[in-house]
Design goal:
Layout (H helix, E strand, L loop, with lengths): L5 E6 L6 E6 L10 H21 L3 H5 L1 E5 L2 H24 L9 H5 L20 H7 L12 H19 L2 H10 L1 H11 L4 H7 L7 H4 L1 H13 L1 H5 L11 E4 L6 H8 L3 H7 L5 H4 L3 E2 L5 E4 L3 H8 L10 E2 L4
Helix pairs in contact: 3-6, 6-7, 7-8, 13-14, 13-16
Length: about 325
């Protein structure tokens, strides 16, 4: 396995065909801004790509691709997995989804909670804005794609809908990346439903390298998660995320809720990461009926003290999420 300081140049169709491995460990020791380190790295990768491509037949040169290693980031993800994975497995099982599919989160974000792609996919499950609005609440003040619990429910529903439309879990997983419509098109084009044939033979315009390799990437992530000691040795997982859930009896701001519960705004923010900074800073109040997570034991404190909430505080209310 390669780490994030290494870049592998390989064939896009035959992943075992590796032409070069570029090492950038030395950049870590240079006293340079990260931007300059990135520029140095990109220039070297571009130069080596052109050098290798020039030595290959044209057809093979067109398939040349670079890939940054992930070993160190995967090890970090395994550590973070203790915080979420048992919860995710219960959520998937409640939706009738095989627990093994929770390992897709490693393919999507490697448990980076604030992960955001260039295309706008966000959160642990890398849900696009349009998809988010179908399965979650996404607005100026609340983006549940960043809520690990609610986003996991959404991911499970997406996978279940894909399965219902396509009839197999390999196809449902592939559709999580590329969309059920494109996978359905591949099935119609080849007259085959097995994922191996689709990966090997289908070359539709929107079914590129990432789509073809998505299900194999999932299988690799699953294998690494299930056999982590073999790859990394013992890894100390973070403790399981635990919390109380309260329902607001009246409107209140998050700072007020933190104060009344005896917790800190930082703790409330960590457990409710979907809210915007304006909400977190108390510029808007949350309406009655809103469910919030609080640190274990602090929910009872809040419920015992909520009647003392100062209703004279003038705030704007969020009417729609």
């Amino acid at each position: 396995m390669y780490d994030s300081s290494q870049v592998v140049l390989h064939d896009a169709d035959d992943l075992s065909l590796i032409y070069a491995v570029l090492n950038f460990h030395h950049l870590e020791d240079l006293d340079l801004p990260e931007r300059e380190k990135t520029e140095i790295r990109e220039r070297n990768v571009s130069y080596e790509m052109e050098r290798v491509r020039g030595r290959l037949p044209p057809a093979m040169g067109e398939r040349l691709r670079s890939q940054t290693g992930l070993k160190d980031k995967f090890a970090k993800a395994l550590k973070s997995s203790g915080r979420y994975l048992p919860l995710f497995e219960k959520i998937f099982e409640s939706h009738g989804i095989p627990r093994e599919l929770t390992r897709l989160v490693c393919v999507e974000s490697l448990f980076e909670e604030r992960s955001r792609s260039r295309a706008g996919a966000s959160g642990l499950w890398q849900i696009m804005p349009a998809t988010g609005k179908r399965y979650l609440r996404v607005s100026r003040h609340l983006d549940e794609r960043y809520d690990p619990i609610r986003a996991t429910h959404a991911a499970a529903r997406i996978l279940r809908d894909n399965y219902d439309a396509l009839g197999s879990w390999p196809l449902a997983v592939t559709a999580y990346n590329t969309g059920a419509g494109i996978v359905r098109q591949a099935v119609r084009s080849l007259g085959r439903r097995d994922i191996t044939t689709i990966i090997e033979r289908y070359r539709g315009g929107n079914f590129g390298f990432a789509s073809r390799n998505y299900f194999p990437a999932f299988l690799s992530a699953l294998s690494i998660c299930e056999n982590s000691d073999h790859y990394f040795g013992p890894i100390a997982r973070e403790p399981l995320l635990q919390f109380d859930v309260v329902t607001l009896p009246t409107s209140a701001t998050l700072p007020q809720i933190a104060f009344l519960s005896g917790s800190s705004i930082g703790e409330v923010k960590t457990l409710n990461p979907a809210y915007s900074n304006d909400v977190l800073q108390g510029r808007y109040s949350l309406p009655p009926g809103t469910k919030l997570r609080l640190p274990v034991g602090f929910g009872q404190i809040f419920e015992a003290r909520h009647s003392t909430l100062n209703r004279s505080t003038s705030t704007n209310k969020i009417s729609n999420y």
